[in-house]
Design a protein that fits this description.
Elements (H helix, E strand, L loop, with lengths): L1 E2 L2 E5 L5 E6 L5 E8 L13 H8 L22 E6 L4 E8 L3 H13 L5 H20 L11 H5 L3 H4 L6 H4 L4 H11 L5 E7 L3 H12 L22 E7 L5 E8 L7 H17 L5 E7 L12 E8 L5 H16 L4 H19 L3 H15 L4 H10 L3 H13 L3 E7 L53 E5 L5 E6 L6 E8 L1 H6 L1 H14 L1 H9 L3 E6 L3 E8 L4 H9 L21 H13 L12 H9 L5 E6 L3 H11 L26 E5 L5 E9 L8 H11 L5 H9 L5 E9 L2 E11 L3 H17 L4 H15 L6 H13 L6 H11 L2 H11 L6 E6 L1 H12 L2
Parallel strand pairs: 3-7, 8-12, 14-18, 19-23
Antiparallel strand pairs: 1-2, 2-3, 4-6, 4-7, 5-6, 9-11, 9-12, 10-11, 13-14, 15-17, 15-18, 16-17, 20-22, 20-23, 21-22
Helix pairs in contact: 1-3, 2-8, 9-11, 9-14, 10-14, 11-13, 16-20, 18-21, 22-28, 23-24, 24-29, 25-27
């Protein structure tokens, strides 16, 4: 059966297949959903489904332990698995060239996984740590999941903890794992989904090649999940030390989406309205349709509301107020306005979240497995649009009297949690005959198969575009991309000399402009769009998205930013707004570099700051999405016709390269609250072409790619596994290369010494061709991720243009990478990262900062 670009079929072994062509996608997604979730677990086997999900990555007949990710990580891809109520999914995102390898690896573990005592013990340890981090070590751990279902439901399948108990999980054997595989991981209990820019017929041939010969076999059907209706509220209270306030989780039974999709979606809209507007008297209010999200499970499932209760307010009083408030929601005079806005937000979010291959493959497979209708993914927006205020009001009234489950987590001297869900006296037999009645028999070991070669990789491409420069100097770039029915918009300005010297004043200006544009912004938000102002000390950014018919309104709001403002500058001694550590470190570096720059007249009010920051022509406006590029450029020219042009004092305050700037400075920033030591090394790029592929590869070789030299050295110096990355960007008006690291205090001095020694080693140990080859492949493949969605493409183009690169730079880069030689990359490494001339900024507690700075000075 075919629906639009979607192709559905079933192989002879029972495997259901969903294929979708996504034109313009440079990467492909492969996902397999199995009809086994934690609600299918037998008593005394709680958590086994999650354990098995981990085991499926640990070896198969053709891919022994450690081999599964060989076609993923070196090519910048990703893979994971998740366990839900009614399914377990395994998903991969790889370059299109690696599609067949992704199919091969999924087929190999569907055909012949390998379980050993060693891998079982290893994964049990990993799961124990996961449970500790997610539940035990986290404040309010277990709220709302996995505890809330046990309050609402009676049947063991619905109520028990999907993580399970470690004492019971440790009793699992390899034979148990093999039996579990035979009972649940049959082709007929699975859906394979592939999304990418591939010919469906050729793709089906590949699917048949790798999955067609997997033998069909019986499998255990899902358990009985029907649940008696609640007749009264159910409460469960537990305590948590060190938390400041009680937390609530409320669970209401949802309508069955199979029988009442309209009623189900009405509750989705209600949850969105609650999350958006909150509930009077409560804090951190959040609501969601489904324990794990909308349409993520078959009936029964829950509408979940969580909130913090203010101190001195009894939890029962807060719940009573929440219950009474449903009638207020139903009779609210502005329901006719707020409800359509909530629907539009949900529709827009749906479009943005499912614009790329990876989330589409997961959603299509889930909907096909649970409801037999992958088509629901694209029907979802229209069905949401059918929900009206009257339906929302009726559902709100029903919730005002509906019994619910209430989980309370209150401050207390010790941590207490509900007792495990009681087990039934005997295993609940599924209704109807089971095709898996016979005891499972372990198959004979399968022979290993050769890994297929990589295919051809289509070149990344932006699509039809129009680029122009407006009279005032703003560069407009519009790109057509129909993977989403929206337009992604980005606007960027460098702050200029005044903005870089007074980032606190720019912060104040951004806050003022944001408040002033709230009224106009609500019009854009009402249609599901967004208009957001930010500054990071380097740029003035406006980011957003909107429907194609609303781009003119978005541009008008952008133009309104130049309307004169009034306001006083912040006091010089006033504490600055909190920024990220990286932003604080860059602010210190900019002040250091500006020490020798020409002085800028001090502003006397925010209007002067506005004229300085917004009054120059070095701006970039990017639009990517469902648009006509020529028409958008014309609309931008009209809307921004009065935007101020270039100013002689606008941006350029420094030479634009290394000559004339201070070098080798050490800046120590103290933060007594920091548990880590953050390090930033920076150097202006040498004069020349910043577009060159050798410089791109040199940055990756330093410490971006996971097999590069730097991480190995630093990890040996700091056993706590710090974060470390290199980048090239713009600081002030100077292209810059930088290295950033987050080091734990005990090993910070040794870590920074390892960074220094590794950089010096590049001069004595040049890059070899063998060392360069995998990094070149990784960079070319990782670059494809920037083309995954219109949103990522818009970010890429904004960053390219603002760094002085051409719009087609990322399209040309894969070819340039292939032509680059190892000596060119070695030369780029020493030019970009001149260890003795780089400026060092260190942030953290005084003692560790001093030790790190002293270590850097050491010969």
């Amino acid at each position: 059966m075919t629906a639009g670009k979607m192709h559905k079929t079933t192989l002879q072994n029972g495997l259901r297949v969903v294929l979708e062509r996504l034109p313009g996608s440079p990467r492909s997604a492969v996902c397999v959903h199995y009809g086994i979730g934690y609600r299918s677990e037998e008593p005394a086997r709680e958590g086994f489904t999650h354990l098995f999900e981990h085991l499926m990555f640990r070896g198969s007949a053709s891919l022994p332990p450690g081999r599964f990710f060989e076609h993923i990580h070196p090519l910048g891809g990703q893979a994971n698995g998740t366990t839900h109520q009614d399914y377990t999914d395994y998903h991969q995102l790889v370059p299109a060239a690696a599609l067949e390898r992704a199919l091969f690896s999924e087929a190999d573990r569907m055909r012949a996984p390998v379980f050993t005592e060693e891998t079982l013990a290893e994964q049990l340890h990993g799961i124990e740590e996961e449970i500790h981090q997610a539940v035990t070590a986290r404040p309010y751990g277990g709220l709302p999941w996995p505890l809330l279902p046990g309050v609402v439901f009676e049947r063991f399948a619905n109520a028990h903890d999907g993580y399970g108990r470690m004492d019971r999980l440790r009793e699992a054997s390899v034979a148990d794992c093999e039996a579990f595989f035979q009972a649940h991981y049959a082709p007929g209990n699975a859906v394979l989904t592939v999304v990418g820019d591939h010919d469906p017929d050729a793709l089906l041939t590949l699917v048949e090649r790798h999955f067609g010969d997997i033998p069909a076999r019986p499998f255990t059907p899902p358990p009985e999940l029907s649940e008696p209706d609640l007749t009264e509220d159910r409460w469960q209270t537990c305590t948590e030390p060190t938390v400041p306030a009680a937390a609530l989780a409320l669970g209401y039974r949802l309508p069955d989406p199979r029988r009442d999709m309209a009623g189900y979606l009405t509750h989705t809209v209600l949850a969105e309205m609650i999350s958006q507007h909150g509930l009077d008297g409560l804090q951190a209010v959040s609501a969601g349709c489904g324990v794990f999200g909308p349409l993520d499970a078959v009936d029964p499932d829950l509408l979940v509301i969580t909130a913090l209760v203010p101190p001195m307010v009894p939890p029962w009083h807060a719940v009573a107020d929440m219950t009474d408030r449903w009638a207020t929601w139903a009779d609210a005079p502005d329901l006719g306005q707020s409800q359509p806005q909530a629907v539009q937000r949900l529709i827009t979010r749906h479009h943005r979240e499912h614009a790329s291959a990876y989330p589409r493959s997961r959603a299509l497979g889930r909907l096909e497995l649970l409801f037999g209708r992958a088509e629901l993914l694209d029907e979802y927006p229209a069905r949401l649009a059918e929900v009206g205020p009257g339906q929302v009001a009726a559902s709100a009234r029903r919730l005002g009297t509906a019994p619910k489950g209430v989980l309370v987590m209150a401050p207390g001297p010790t941590r207490t949690r509900p007792a495990p869900v009681p087990e039934p006296g005997s295993v609940q037999e599924p209704k109807g005959p089971s095709p898996a009645a016979a005891a499972p028999v372990s198959p004979a070991p399968a022979a290993a198969r050769p890994l297929p070669p990589l295919g051809a990789q289509p070149a990344p491409h932006h699509g039809p575009r129009c680029q122009t420069t407006l009279t005032g100097g703003t560069v407009v770039l519009a790109v057509q991309d129909h993977r989403s029915p929206l337009v992604e918009l980005r606007f960027r300005l460098p702050l200029g000399a005044l903005g870089w010297q007074r980032p606190d004043a720019v912060d104040e200006l951004v806050q003022l402009l944001a408040r002033r544009s709230e009224t106009a912004g609500r019009r854009i938000e009402a249609t599901g769009g967004d208009f957001h102002l930010t500054t990071d000390g380097q740029w003035f950014d406006v980011t957003g998205y909107t429907a194609p018919g609303m781009t003119a309104a978005w541009l008008d709001q952008l133009a309104d930013l130049t309307a004169p403002v009034r306001g006083r500058l912040p006091e010089p001694d006033r504490p600055p707004r909190p920024h990220s550590p990286d932003a604080a470190m860059d602010t210190a570096l900019r002040r250091h570099w500006l020490g020798g720059a020409r002085p800028v007249a001090a502003p006397d009010n925010l209007g002067a700051v506005q004229r300085s920051v917004l009054g120059h022509g070095d701006a970039w406006l990017i639009a990517v999405g469902a648009l006509d590029p020529e028409r958008f450029a014309a609309d931008a020219a009209r809307a921004l016709s009065d935007w101020p042009g270039a100013s002689p004092t606008a941006v350029n305050v420094l030479p634009g390269h290394r000559d004339g700037l201070p070098a080798g400075g050490i800046l120590a920033l103290h933060d007594d609250a920091s548990d880590d030591v953050r390090v930033a090394l920076s150097a202006p790029e040498p004069a020349g072409d910043t577009d060159t592929a050798p410089r791109y590869l040199a940055t990756a070789l330093i410490c971006t790619q996971y097999t590069s030299r730097m991480p190995e050295r630093v990890l040996r110096a700091d056993h706590a596994a710090p974060s470390l990355y290199a980048a090239r960007d713009v600081c002030l008006d100077v292209p810059r290369a930088s290295i950033r690291a987050t080091l734990h205090q005990p090993g910070a001095a040794q870590g920074i010494a390892a960074v220094r020694d590794t950089l010096r080693a590049f001069q004595s140990a040049p890059i070899t061709a063998a060392e360069l080859a995998p990094i070149r492949d990784f960079c070319a493949a990782q670059l494809l991720g920037a083309f995954d969605t219109p949103a990522t493409k818009a970010d890429l183009l904004r960053d390219c243009l603002s760094a002085g690169r051409q719009a087609d730079w990322a399209e040309r880069l894969p070819v340039l990478l292939r032509e680059t030689t190892a000596p060119e990359v070695s030369a780029a490494c020493t030019a970009l990262f001149p260890v003795d001339d780089m400026d060092l900024v260190v942030l953290g507690r005084p003692g560790p900062v001093t030790e790190a700075c002293d270590q850097w000075r050491a010969p």
